[in-house]
Amino acid sequence: MTDIRAEITTGQDRAEAGFGDYVQLLKPRVMSLVVFTALVGLLVAPMSLHPVEALASIIFIALGAGASGALNMWWDADIDRLMRRTARRPVPAGLVEPGEALAVGLALSLISVFMLGLAANWLAAGLLAFTIFFYAVIYSMWLKRWTPHNIVIGGAAGAFPPMIGWVVATGHVGIEAVLMFALIFMWTPPHFWALALFMKDDYGKAGVPMLTVTHGRRVTRAQILAYTLALVPVALGAGFTSIGGPVYLAVALALNALFVVGAFGLWRRTEEAALLDGYRAEKRFFRFSLLYLFLHFAAFLAEATPWAEPLRASFTFWGS
C-alpha cells in the first residue's frame, strides 16, 4: 500500500482546491455534533456566561474539532482513498496536499486551545488539547489500525465536547459532565458498528481491524446489543441529576426502549436476511442512532428552559 503522505503530486495532475475543500477538511458534519453537544454542556451548567464569552468559547471548541478532523485526514489519507465512503475527501481526492492538511490541523490546534484558555479558562483549554491529541494520536495513529476495539476506546474523543462546555461555564468537572461524557462514550460503539455492518468490505479493503472484519458480523451484532443494554442505565441515570427531570426522562425512556428493540432486532438477524434486503435494518438503526443522541441532548437543553421549571418542581416533590 502506497502511503499517500509520501506521494508528490505535480501542478498538472492536481486539481485546484477551493474554499469548500478546506471546509470539508475540517469534517463539518462531525463538527456540528461537537458544537451542539458542547453548547448543551455549556447551557445546562449551573453558571451563566456573558453571551460573547459563550459564543467565543463555542467557536474555539469548533475550531479544535476542525483541527482534529484535518489531522485525521492527513494521517488517514492512505486508507481513506481505498474506501468508498471516504475516497472523495479532500486529501485522498488530491484536492488538498497532505502537508497542507497537517499545517491546517496544527495551526488550528494551537489557535483553538490558546484562545479558549483566554476566553474561558485553562482547564477547558487543557481538555480541548487532550481531546485533539486523543483523536489525532491515540485513536487515528494507534488504535484505529491496531485493535478491533478502536472505536470503543477512541469514542472518548467524541465524548469530551459536552464536558468541555460544562467546564467553560463552571471551571470544574461535575457528575453531570461525566454522565454526558459517558452517554456519548457508550453510544459510540453501537452507532459505528451498525455502520460497519454494511460497510465491512471497505474496512477490510483498507486493512482497518474493525470488529466486523476481525470477528465477523455475528459477533458485532452481539456487541451492539451488549453496549446498547449497558447504555440504558447511563442515559436514564442522567435524568436524576441536576440536568435531568421529567421531560428528559420521558424522552430517554422512549428512545432507549426503541434503541434496545432495534439492537435486539439486529442481533436476531441472519446475514442471509440482511443481504436479501440490502442491510435495510442496519442502515435504519444507524440513522436512528444519530437521532437518539441528538434528542437526548435536546432534552437536556429543554430541561434548562424556564417553562420546564414547574414540571421539575413537581418531579422533585413526587420523588422526595
Q: What structural class is derived from the secondary structure elements? A: mainly alpha
User: What low-confidence regions span 5 or more consecutive residues with pLDDT below 50?
Assistant: 1-12
What is the helix fraction of residues, given as a range?
A: over 70%
The largest sheet, given as strand count, sense and whether it forms a barrel, is: none
Number of helices: 16
Jot down its keywords.
320 residues, 0% strand, disordered N terminus
Provide the fold topology.
Elements lengths: L18 H7 L2 H16 L7 H25 L1 H4 L17 H22 L2 H25 L3 H5 L1 H15 L4 H23 L2 H7 L4 H4 L1 H22 L8 H23 L2 H6 L3 H24 L5 H11 L1
Helix pairs in contact: 2-3, 2-8, 2-15, 3-5, 3-6, 3-8, 5-6, 6-8, 8-9, 9-12, 9-15, 12-13, 13-15
Task: Describe what you observe in this structure.
By secondary structure, this protein is mainly α. The chain has 2 domains: 19-173, UbiA prenyltransferase (Tetracycline Repressor, domain 2), CATH 1.10.357.140; 174-314. It contains 16 helices and no strands. It has helices at 19-25, 28-43, 51-75, 77-80, 98-119, 122-146, 150-154, 156-170, 175-197, 200-206, 211-214, 216-237, 246-268, 271-276, 280-303, 309-319. Helix 12 packs antiparallel against helix 13 (246-268). It is flat. Mean pLDDT is 90; it is low at 1-12.
